[in-house]
Amino acid sequence: MARSVQERLKVLELWRAGYSGKGLARASGIPRSTVRDWLRRFAGVAQSAEAADLKSAQWGFESLHQHQHSAYVYLLGLYLGDGTIAHGPRIYTLRIFLNRNQSEVIAEAARAISQLLPTRRVGFVQRGQCVIVTSYSRDWPAILPQHGPGRKHHRRIALEPWQENLVVAHPESFVRGCIHSDGCRHRRLVKGKNYPAYEFSNRSEDILDLFAWACRLLGIYYTRPSRIHISIARRPDVARLDLLMGWPGAANLRSQPTLPEMCAPAR
Prior knowledge:
By secondary structure, the protein is of the alpha+beta class. The chain contains 10 helices and 8 strands. It has a 4-stranded antiparallel sheet. Strands 5-6-8-7 form a 4-stranded antiparallel sheet.
């Protein structure tokens, strides 16, 4: 007989409370062999049993546990920046397109996926100068509800309320994901001098608005030099992003306070 998500979560809750063996089976009403199998498969995954089962069709804030919030927000930024979800015959495929020379970014993307779906394998496909990080799951449209027919810049992109709450709590992870997938750090010439700057580009006005909102949450000033670009060029803001992005030489910089009052995205 197929067991429900609720039954598995109940067993894991009892396990965390100290039940074991016969006590788990008796309290849950589930055979000991099934209980042993669930604990063997899930209890040690992703640091704790909280990460055990994310196969529920009811995705949302309550489907995630606290140690997964930052990873989810980072993956959301990656997906909105340069990711797609493709529908196969029986399953969905998440694809994140990254620069093949940025091995640390590729590894971070894979870790985020594994932390959210620890029982799913992460794949890598090299295509020219690009590495596509892939993961198969029936749940991707529920995990990332911004998925829909057609390209992202041809449809409305808006966060669910539970996603807004997570971005407010972890704006730095969202900005990192966006810049890692569809942004860059570059040099710009001003009166003959070379200055560093960051840029995020996207053809979706909605996604640009979301990135700008996350920058405001972090207290980072930005400009819109063109319809598809957001630029961050002021020296203290570039320093903030250098620290956030782990740019070499930024480790000794002190972060600035965020602006939690800016808690709603542009509409």
